[in-house]
Amino acid sequence: QSVLTQPPSVSGAPGQRVTISCTGSSSNIGAGYDVHWYQQVPGTAPKLVLHGNSNRPSGVPDRFSGSKSGTSAFLAISGLQADDEADYYCQSYDMRLSGAVFGGGTKLTVL
Amino acid sequence: QVQLVESGGGLVKPGGSLRLSCAASGFTFSDFYMSWIRQAPGKGLEWVSYISSSGSTIYYADSVKGRFTISRDNAKNSLYLQMNSLRAEDTAMYYCARGYKFAYIWGQGTLVTVSS
Question: Does pLDDT of A38 surpass 90?
Answer without folding.
Answer: yes
